[in-house]
Amino acid sequence: MKKTVLKLGLAALLAANVLLVQAVVVPSSAYHVQAAEAAKAEGTHVKGKIGNISQKAKTIALTPPDGSFFLLKFTDETTVNGVDSISELKNDEMITAEFKVVDGANIATGISLVMVELEPGTTEVKTEELVGMVKEGKVVVVDSRPVARYNESHIPGAVSIPFAKLKQMGDEGAKLLEPYKDKQLVFYCGGPT
Amino acid sequence: MSPKSAGLAAKWGHNNPLVYVEGQPAWNKKGNRTVPALDYIENESVVIIDLRDPAKVEGGHIPKAYAIPFKTFMDEAEFVLPKALGAPIYLYSDSDKEIDAARKEAREVGYKSVYGFYNAVESWTAGGKQLQQGPALAVSDDEPIPWERKLGVGEISITDFTKSLQSDLIHIVDTRTAVEFDTGHFPGAVNIPLEEMDKRLAEIPMNKFIVVHCKTGARGEMGYKLLREAGYTVKYLNAECECMPSGEFEIW
Predict the structure, then answer these.
(1) Is B177's CB within 8 Å of A24's CB?
(2) Span B34-148: which CATH code?
(3) Among A113, A127, A130, B173, which one has the highest count of C-beta atoms within 10 angstroms of its own C-beta?
């Protein structure tokens, strides 16, 4: 009953786009339970992309590979690998962290920046080489970032084929690359993530 | 993302796909240009500025562009650009030097997403798009360019946020620190710093519509995600704001 009143009140007050009333109400302790379970399952180790980092709140919002949400806190004692200090970590970078659960909060003991690993059968290209290749027009440059990033700005001549889309399509994804079968492909994104 | 894409290409029979690991940030850093997608410029909420002389602007400009001659832009950028420092701004001219200088200026006055749109007019027509003849949109220094963000997942608009301050059904959670909160906050807002939120969930009512904010949106977004995971009906304000001790506030 309370829920209905809430819905009506809001509808009257705000535009429809504000309405996001979830059908299932999870008890407020769910977050703690989840944190503890994650810790148990993964042995106090988490890997994820930085969605947001706040130096003030000493908190990192991580997106683990399964797309879930993980809140990690750090302290002055948290050690770092791959960068000089936590203040150098940026959004979208992939990190791994060792953490302990204290009062339901995930406190990082160590954070490491994940370095890029190349897949078999592929080779890295450096900026100078790529500049030449793009000038000569001999390569097909593929932007692997989400379409929104491509729209804002991309390497001139690049085509947009987001990695997420390729992955989602499974082996059907091969069709997206089929038109460039006899061309030299160059894949890029927003830097090591 | 790109190493994995290249891995898939190799698996599907493409010969030695290359990976530009350093990516677009390095590309830009070394002075190489990037371009926007024309459909995006045409259809999305972006700010386009034509820095050329009025005569050239009237001869044909990109639709929706504001005409601000280069010299005027360099003097008045901070007064005429939108209030929101996150607004995506695209600058074009027939002089690349002017684009570079104007871009630097816009960044210096605080804009975060400033892009040079090089060879804009040529690429616009080459891409099959029509130029607009006649005068472009004008600006004045007492009325900045209007611009409103398209709302992302979980975001509440500034207008709706302002309205929600007057409602008993909506519970505003300020995720800034206690010190920040004490220097001024929204009327009716409750302070739960982000770093304490997971321990203080019991203080946030389940039967109300929750709206989370901070100073810039960053901590607000984390708070939003945390509360969403915990089952709350919640939105967050993705905007910058300033609250005075008097209770007056400004959001942009």
Answers:
(1) no
(2) 3.40.250.10
(3) B173
Domain A127-188 part of CATH 3.40.250.10: yes
Q: How far apart are CA A61 and CA A45, in angstroms?
A: 15
Q: Which fold has domain A31-113?
A: OB fold (Dihydrolipoamide Acetyltransferase, E2P) (2.40.50)
Q: Does A188 contact B27 at a Cβ distance shorter than 8 Å? A: yes
CATH architecture of B155-251: 3-Layer(aba) Sandwich (3.40)
pLDDT of residue B202 exceeding 50, the answer is: yes
pLDDT exceeds 90 at position B229: yes
Is the CB of residue B51 less than 8 Å from the CB of residue B70? yes
Rounded mean pLDDT, B117-143: 93
- For A144-170, the pLDDT digits (tens) are 999 999 999 999 999 999 999 999 999
Q: Does A83 touch chain B (CB under 8 A)?
A: no
pTM: 0.66
Kindly state whether B4 is in contact with chain A, defined as any CB-CB distance less than 8 angstroms.
Answer: yes
CATH 3.40.250.10 in chain A: give the residue spans: 127-188
